[in-house]
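Intended use. Records like the one below are meant for learning the mapping from a protein sequence to its folded structure. Do not use them to infer anything beyond what is encoded.
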Amino acid sequence: MISRMIGRKKKFLKFAAVLFVVLLLLAAALLFFPQQFLSVDSGSAKADVIIVLGGGGAHERPVQAAELFKQHAAARILISGAGDDEINRSALIRYGVPASAIEIEGNSKTTRENAMYSVNLLRAQHIQSAIIVTSWYHSRRALCTFEHFGGGIKFYSCPSHFLYERYIWPRGFSRELYLEYIKIPGYWVAYGICPF
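Structure written out for the chain above:
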């Protein structure tokens, strides 16, 4: 009886040690290779509309959206997000997008609200597909959130790859990036938005 208990305890300790090592390796992978975990890029895509999410410290998102527009990925652009919506609109026009092709959803303040409010507009306009433009490190959570709220609409992710390479990250950038590792499970727990 005692030897059986000792055997079970040894098995449990071995299992716990292996689990600890696996979790440690996973944490190291997430820390050193965030691009592979956070970035989702659908590649070349065509859709009814391009959705540009607010945010992005260097306003790189409207640049990416304008490039996609010029490549005829979509004929219209929806800007989603309060605060920098007019800045993004001005940037899109400066980069060659006609004002008539731009629509603004200027009420949302979070990724969840971006998706909820944008999906309402898309459904009202019978939109079937959309390309989401955000920063690369935000693209997984953004795509999963839009898919969660926008059932029946096909979403693609074509993020900006600004500051994609680690060697050009400015001081403090990694803090913003690693916050996604908290926000992704937070969205899963709070809203049921699965990140996979």
